[in-house]
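In response to the reviewer comment on reproducibility (Comment 2.3), we provide here a single inverse folding case reported in full, input and output, so that an independent group could reproduce the run without further information from us. The structure tokens appear first.
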């Protein structure tokens, strides 16, 4: 299965989870590394757009396509999520769920609904799981971010 992530071109090859470790995210606390990816390129752009302020944006972005083993994915259903899972900023309840998953090392990939469009899915990849060597970069494509997405912030 192919999943996608958008980020600065200089980090397009990085599968260490360092960015998430430094800043945390909806599904991890700071100091807990992971790799965030999305089911589609469009969702990856949306996720990037809502998580990065216009002042931090660069035009040097890339979409990294990753092949991951579908049979190793654990899915978290919407009904299993805490009531505040879509809150902004991301609540500690979801950070706790993801961090516990990452620390348990029971599965290398967690499938979660997107807080933007809950019928779409994101993937939390564990770079320290023994199966993480099966995460393969298929392609990296440089893109120019369309600033019209952030037009209200210009």
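Designed residues, in position order:
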């Amino acid at each position: 299965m192919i999943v996608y992530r958008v980020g600065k071109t200089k980090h397009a090859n990085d599968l260490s989870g360092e960015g998430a470790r430094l800043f945390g995210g909806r599904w991890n606390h700071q100091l807990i590394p992971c790799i965030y990816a999305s089911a589609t390129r469009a969702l990856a752009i949306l996720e990037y757009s809502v998580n990065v302020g216009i002042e931090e944006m660069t035009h040097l972005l890339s979409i990294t396509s990753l092949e991951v083993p579908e049979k190793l994915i654990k899915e978290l259903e919407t009904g299993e999520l805490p009531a505040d899972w879509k809150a902004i900023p991301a609540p500690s309840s979801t950070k706790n769920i993801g961090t516990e998953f990452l620390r348990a090392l029971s599965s290398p990939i967690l499938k979660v609904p997107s807080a933007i469009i809950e019928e779409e899915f994101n993937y939390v990849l564990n770079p320290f799981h023994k199966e993480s060597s099966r995460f393969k970069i298929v392609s990296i494509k440089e893109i120019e971010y369309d600033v019209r997405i952030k037009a209200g912030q210009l």
